[in-house]
Amino acid sequence: MKTYRALLFFGLAWVLSLGSTYGQATDSLASLRKRFDAYSQQTLQEKLYVHTDRPFYVSGEILWFKLNAVDGTHHKPLAMSKVAYVELLDKEHNPVLQAKINLQHAAGNGSWQLPASLVSGNYVLRAYTNWMKNFSPDFYSSIPVTIINTRRNLAQKASKDSAAVDVQFFPEGGNLVKGMASKVAFKITNRAGKGVATEGTVRNPQGVVVSQFKTLKFGIGNFTFTPDQEGVAYTASIKLLGGQVVTRKLPAAHEYGYTLHLEDISPGQLRLTVASNIAEKSAEDVFLVGHSGQQISVSAATRLAGGRGEFVVEKKNLADGISHFTIFNSRKQPLSERLYFQRPKPQLLIAATADKQQYGIREKVVLQLSTTSFTEKATPADMSLAVYRLDSLTTVPGLDVNSFLWLTSNLKGTVENPNYYFTSTSPEIIEASDNLMLTHGWSRFLWTDVFSNKAPHFEFAPEINGHVVEGRVVNGHTGAPAPKVGAYLASPSRLIRMYNATSDQNGRVRFETRDFFGSKELVLQTNTQRDSLYRVEIINPFSVKYTASAVPPLVFSESFRTELGKRSLQMQVQNAYFRKQLTMHRLPAADSTAFYGKPDETYKLDDYTRFKVLEEVMREYVPGVQVRLRNDGFHFMVLDNIRHVILNENPMVLLDGVPVFDVNKIMAMDPLKIQKLDVITSRYFQGSMIYDGLVSYTTYKGDLAGFELNPHALVQEYEGMQWQREFYAPRYETAAEKQSRLPDARTLLYWNPNVATSADGKKSLEFYTSDHAGKYLVVIQGLADNGLVGSRRFTFEVKQPL
Hints:
The chain is mostly beta strands. It contains nine helices and 49 strands. The longest helix has 41 residues.
């Protein structure tokens, strides 16, 4: 009986301990999820997908692009930011072209005519929003672009080490640990950043071969081995094409630590195995969190038994695309991380057909498009479409919307031919995809930030209404930031826009502008009558952070020279005969109303007898503004028609929208240069500032008419959002048009960034072929409101008449 009671007691204690352990594990998992969800709500992920009309250009051609803004998890259009920043970076990461693009309904488009000053080479086109500047530049959208300047010498300097390769090793889970088997992925690329097919061996410090390896695809592969020594690096010998052998060191193994291994155990399940050789951790509780984007899909806990534990994950619970698996210890410290790629199910299905497979020159092409979901339900979509001639220069397909949103936007570094991983579900592609996850593993955040009790600090706010011009108010003598100083931004124009802001503790001011397109002369100043000690600087709105990824050098083949000559001639012909059409821009509709709305009083001075002195104009025709002469000169006093009192302070005085704080200077102006005068006869509230009325003068041309601004004001040329260039393509609807002697040298037949299918998912388009025969590629990229994405490519031929 005593033995039975003892067994019962110990059994009950064991059950209670299990319940306590389970409860603690459940609490820890709930805490992990809660922290992650809270962090995700404060750090919204925004992505920009960029579609260019083609991947290869010669200088002088126009580069066209389309932008789609989506949320980082579900890929639904995200209409948060109204401005995107687009840059073309050279191999040194220097911006050679920049543009601000207006985003409406989470989409925008733009173009550059590539200048003759560009040198031949590979470039990177990157795009981001102001909100995205809060995060790593690795999050920015970037695509490779090749540009050849045929007006400059194309000779390539021979590399001193043409066989040089870059070799990187990536232990699964993060580290090699002594005495524990680990999978090690590797990536071997040449100087151009392309994968190199190689094989090799791994030797221990004594020179004994412990493993062999061979690349699978794009210079990537993996091998497994067990390091039996810690603190020393094993050596890989790599045999290159031609017989050259190079050696590289593997990461040194740790004496103690954790390993993580992922394997496919069935069509519907994964197994993640955690192991540790730390004796006191052999029975430790560990936790698994799997997330995709900002959504947790898997969370589980297990206790290591003999230093080993397993998690079995149902694939159906994982989101499509990349899942991040992270292992935590009981103190919520991340131990290992592993990425897994689940090929997305069919998304937006785009059917596109041409009315013929073969056309003559200057012949009409009719395209029929339809968009459906994977269940064949009609799905309206926003698409962009390019049709260009295939030649020996255009050998690499551009990045499509599927491979960007599902793959490359969540990976670090350059992925060679990302479209390959979407071509099929063959075992080779599945293995290559997993190798890619091992070599490009990367997280968009630090778990220390997730577990921090502090709210994230963001320097850059999203531009939710329009472009925000940022500046800094500083002391004119010391250069120190000046807080709590009012500043004013304006651009001389007949379209009256004036903005104000008060500097924060760092002297920073932000002006949220409206209808800010094209190049403008900005005037930025403080109230010079009150704050003449300060000056204002404009802050560069473009990001000055860059990725560590190198732009691969251009590898030029002499076999391209003939085709380049043709392409260059075609470009010059087009620019010579159609320059006017190629430089046409569509101006956005702008509200012509002044920022203060309808004024209380308006005076068109040409309707009155003209005086030669502005003082007489004000005294004779503007009863709502009293002119007073004091010891320091003229003052304006506005009669408040609402409260029927005279306001004591000078009103806000504007000339073509630019504040003028010295009334004496405006009174010295020739009134014959002024066409119109508006008056607000009451206190006017603009943001946090209050004006004792408002007096606004407008000249005939809106250019200040020679008025000299205060020398403390900053006057600077500033590029607003880009005007949209009109894509030009001739039409040959009549016999006379078809027989026109003007040459049609287009290789880009059609570009349309705003193709929208209707409610029934259908759309019809038409364009005409040019004078150049050849094979033409049609590329369509689409995005639906529900987050479904898809692309479609097909070709047709154009033949010269016999």
